[in-house]
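This part of the workshop introduces the protein records we will be handling. As an example, a complete record with its sequence and its structure tokens follows.
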Amino acid sequence: MEKIVITIDGWSSCGKSTLAKQLAKELGYVYIDSGAMYRSITLYFLRYHIDWTNKAAVAKALKNIVLEFHHNEKTGESEIFLNGENVEYLIRDLVIAEKVSDIATIKEVRGFAVTEQQKMGKKKGIVMDGRDIGTTVFPDAALKIFMTADIAVRVERRFKEMFEKNPNITIEEVKNNLEMRDYIDSNREVSPLRKAADAIVLDNTHISMEQQLKFALNLLNY
């Protein structure tokens, strides 16, 4: 079967990366986590105290950022490296989560990330998830999925994920963070979160991971 580009967009914590990883594994495709790219840029900005309200400072910082994905043989997962350092786990911190939507609204940051993502997709055979993959990064993708789920379910999922790393976190903090990110992502001027006209909606509020994979594979007649 000819390799294609598959895009998965949607709200925070609605299972985009889970489905993207499932599909990539099933199809023998490369999984690219676009959110990890924005999180890594955010980590760099915070580490080096970059003033992201200053265009010149942002442009200079972006020139010093190299993002790469490497396959982890032990876990079978794709992990992101920032300037040669594996930051896959560092970027999942709540401090990053609180700032990433702000930094992702910056035109220059999005331009940088989109260019990198489009380079990664030139050979096709990729599954990429994010907020604007089917609308901005790969508007001509062969298959576009837009994922959603009830806010209460999304909060519970994110809380469980973050509690493992930070037992002091509260469900209220997680809910506030998700609602803030939803608002910023869908209201930003550059590439806001929205469903592409030709994207197929997948609401996984009440279905299992196995069922969502089956749904996606059926779209491919696979």
In short: The mean pLDDT is 93. The chain has one domain: 5-216.
